[in-house]
Amino acid sequence: MKELMIILLSSVFVNNYVLSRFLGICPFLGVSKKLGPAVGMGISVTAVMLLASAVTWPIQRLLLDRLGLGYLQTVLFILVIAALVQMLELMLARFSPALHRSLGVYLPLITTNCAVLGVAINNINDGFTFVQSIVSALGCGLGFLLAMVLFAGLRSRIDESEIPRPFRGLAATLIAASFISLAFMGFAGIVDKLFA
Predict the structure, then answer these.
(1) What is 24-50 written as a DSSP string?
(2) What is the pLDDT of residues 48-60, one digit of tens each?
(3) Tens of pLDDT along 57-75?
(4) How many degrees, rounded to 5, is the angle at CA 132 between CA 115 and CA 83?
(5) How far apart are CA 87 and CA 111, in angstroms?
(6) Closest Cα partner for 103 from 30, 29, 177?
(7) What is the pTM of this model?
(8) Phi and psi, residue 113, nearest 5°
């Protein structure tokens, strides 16, 4: 249990895929203008990360490893993620049309979100068991959601502020993202000390 808590908290705070590994930047910058779509994207990415890890781990261990087809990992994982995103898109269109519209083009882009693929591959490369992979994916998804929510709040404050002309737009956005990333670097080492 202690090991699972370390994996979960490390995935959320220390090894945050957006803020420390810089994966999944496209939706992070593109959908974080307002809180509603940011939360929706964060939850969608979390769901896809969980499902992708739950499906790709057995495929890797039971199929690819046993048949010596490890070189097909990336291609097969992308196909699995694409199918999961398509299912998620259909479910959102059916059950939450407003969220589906607000996510717009960014929802299909989860297919190419390198954070989702990175979680699935890193769980295998780190030698995680199935349960550890699920916990890691949950932590990574929650970390993505946290980053999205924090950044959406920060961007709303930036939009309300008067900032010098050279820093308006993308420049202010990237500077704000770097400050959040620096803040998350402060969590390094804390998780291990909590459970020492």
Answers:
(1) SHHHHHHSTTSHHHHHHHHHHHHHHHH
(2) 899 999 999 999 9
(3) 999 999 999 999 999 999 9
(4) 45
(5) 11
(6) 30
(7) 0.87
(8) -70, 115
